[in-house]
Amino acid sequence: MGRFPVITVDGPSGSGKGTICSLLARELGWNLLDSGALYRLVALAARHHGVALDDVDALVILAAHLDVQFSTVEDQNEVTIILEGEEVSNSLRTEDCGADASVVASLGPVRDALLERQRAFVTELGLIADGRDMGTVVFPQAELKVYLTASAEERANRRYNQLINKGLGASLQAILDDIQARDARDMNRAVAPLKPAKDAISLDTTELSIEEVLASVLDQARHKGLR
Ligand SMILES: Nc1ncnc2c1ncn2[C@@H]1O[C@H](COP(=O)(O)OP(=O)(O)O)[C@@H](O)[C@H]1O
Ligand SMILES: Nc1ccn([C@H]2C[C@H](O)[C@@H](COP(=O)(O)OP(=O)(O)O)O2)c(=O)n1
């Protein structure tokens, strides 16, 4: 760590981190860390093993020994995630799993257990790191730190449309309530709360298209000599 370039993208649920990070990784040819997936995997493993979400010792063991494989199929955007031999790519993305992930992520010892696993994603190619504390805790030395925001209503609309497009039923009000509860938990926890790093560039994406956000971040990367 330290010698290779890192761009961090932090922000609340639905601000566009995952979308922008995968486009950035493709455009720059860099590695990608979806740190939220690691917290979601701990939550899912807890469910599979019947571990309660407040059983810190058992959760730490699960986090430290996550048996997971990430694989990308050539020419496909989607990453396939295998947990303990079972494909979990879809169950990982549910709103329930996101809410459970936010609960286990509030526990300091669970965060500590995932720290080195996250830093190991750095390669000489460079790394795009997507999460809540990428710029503040995990990669404080990153060359470029981006903090994405958008109004809670816009973020709920985006999630709603995402679920409808997948053919899943959804209630806009329930999604908005969930987003607000998750924002409050992620921003107010004692360890590694969601907030912009002091040297982060904040971008409000409420009125911006995906293309405009991507162009703006690539512009910042160019200013820093990263491309
Ligand atoms: N600037 C934007 N304008 C409109 N829709 C967006 C924008 N950014 C992302 N989206 C859409 O919003 C949804 C949530 O985006 P996602 O990247 O998963 O957010 P996050 O990773 O921050 O939770 C996706 O369906 C995505 O296509
Ligand atoms: N670096 C991170 C990434 C995610 N988390 C926690 C807090 C989030 O609510 C959950 C799920 O994160 P994820 O990025 O997958 O969720 P969204 O796609 O933004 O809805 O995990 C975290 O505490 N720190």
TrEMBL record:
| Residues annotated as binding ATP | G11, P12, S13, G14, S15, G16, K17, G18, T19
Kindly report, in one word, the top-level EC class recorded for this enzyme. transferase
Query: What's a GO cellular component annotated to this UniProt protein?
Result: cytoplasm
User: What catalytic reaction does the record list?
Assistant: CMP + ATP = CDP + ADP; dCMP + ATP = dCDP + ADP
Gene3D superfamilies (alphabetical): P-loop containing nucleotide triphosphate hydrolases
- SUPFAM superfamilies per UniProt: P-loop containing nucleoside triphosphate hydrolases (SSF52540)
EC number assigned by the record:
2.7.4.25
Q: InterPro entries per the record?
A: Cytidylate_kin, Cytidylate_kinase_dom, P-loop_NTPase
Q: Name one GO biological process term.
A: pyrimidine nucleotide metabolic process
Compartments, record wording: Cytoplasm
On the tree of life, the source organism's domain of life is Bacteria
| Family designation | Belongs to the cytidylate kinase family. Type 1 subfamily.
Tell me which NCBIfam families the record gives: cmk (TIGR00017)
Protein name from the UniProt record: Cytidylate kinase
Q: Which organism's genome codes for this protein?
A: Amphritea balenae
Q: What is the lineage of its organism?
A: Bacteria, Pseudomonadati, Pseudomonadota, Gammaproteobacteria, Oceanospirillales
Q: Which gene encodes it?
A: cmk
